[in-house]
Amino acid sequence: MCSLRQAIEVISSLISYSHPIKVFAVKWQLIRNKLEELCSSLTALENCDSIQNPILSGMISAIVASASDCYDLARRCVDLSYSGKLLMQSDLDVMVAKLERHVKNLFGICTAGILTQGFAIVVSRPGVNACKDDMRFYFRDLLTRMKIGDLEMKRQALLNLYDVVAEDDKYVKILVEVGDIVNILVSLLDSVELEIQQEAAKVVSVISGFDPYKSVLIGAGIIGPLIRVLESGSEISKEGAARSLQKLTENSDNAWSVSAYGGVTALLKICTSADSRTALVCPACGVLRNLVGVDEIKSFMIEEGAVPTLIKLARSKDEAVQLSSIEFLQNIASVDESVRQLVAREGGIRALVRVFDPKSACSSKSREMALRAIENLCFSSAGCIIMLMNYGFMDQLLFFLRSGDVSVQELALKAAFRLCGKSEETKKAMGDAGFMSELVKFVDAKSFEVREMAAVALSSLVSVPKNRKRFVQDDRNVGCLLQLLDQEEANSGSKRLLISILLSLTSCNSGRKKIASSGYLKNIEKLAEAEVSDAKRLVRKLSTNRFRSILNVIWHS
User: Fold this and answer.
1) Which of 264, 372, 399 is nearest to 314 (CA)?
2) pTM attached to this predicted model
């Protein structure tokens, strides 16, 4: 009876002997592939006690007999001594089928329990500075255990595999290069053993994070198994599958595959379920967000109720869930007015305003995301801006403009800047709320960008007569502008904006009087002499006002 060592040597010799064959090249490549699979499996079994496993011993004898027949075919192809091409092609096809049966039989015998943890010798994990060849050998050993080991061997092999690839990125490249390890991982996602499925999903999640290997996973047909895990796997398996799909769908080319396997429905079910954990909901939202770029898939999502589902998640107290759901709502409605209207009808604007509310317990990060979403979804629609005002958004925005964290305050200023460019009713509402006094403070900011935005926004607000009157009622507002004008360098952008604001204020009688009597008139005249833009117009307006005052005095004397 042949030993494992003899069988391995016979197959290795046959592989080497077949390489120079020039005829029937495709057939011989198939044969070599099967022989290499057999050799890999037999090498892993070499450390098992085959004497105590008679079925395995019989299998080895049958493999060696087939190898002998294959050697005879190889000799005839090398010598070109076969009787006919058609007959030799037929013989080679038979050999391929025979070797395939051996591979499957060996796999079936071993997974039935003949190869167990008790018989196997464990290959130790190489050290930190191990060479690539040592790591390849270790991965091949793990691969064999995943292919033909019992349940415990498979589980342990997957655990070891995850530990290695999660520890260092460089090992992922080596792993992908080893045999059909990706195909085995994909097949294990469909395992009825939840523990095996769980560990396979964790490994796949790591590999899917590397762009060069995403195509390898897609080529191995991973989308279908991942969707099936989402539908019926354990919570941990689902989390791994969702993370993998989120990374794989960053490339929109893979969106159709997810949809074709029913992924959208499975993902929305996860988002709807009250039992789903944050670690599952967030990547599920991420996958849906990646898919909305395909119009047909977006339409299907809307039909399936994605918008109300994600609005409900935006009301969650969990920061991560809030961020993921709000980002999805932004993406799905960003360039589609009908979807923006749907978001508004379903209560999406109210939900975002509640997240932004300073009285809520939401984090600064959630507020920032909510404000960005409000800008993107509402500021282009007069109707939505009215809804915002009705929900108290103006007061919230003013609060953060006055006393928010730096990051939120900057966003609030940008939002105020954009709102100032909208309708006159919006400008009036902002004037009534008290935005102008706050914007004056920002005109004196260190950042040129902030100064510019504040000045432009203020100029827009005081263009409304009602706002001008309100603005000049506070002496500090006019005094601050004149003081800043005195500080600014000639012809600077901020100086021109300040003059523009003062010019608007001269349309109001009390505004003209306060500027003319402020003591800064000589400074304005100097700017006019220096040809600073609009300074001459401002001087003319103020001079006209003084001339009229003199006439009034004479007339009434």
Assistant:
1) 372
2) 0.73
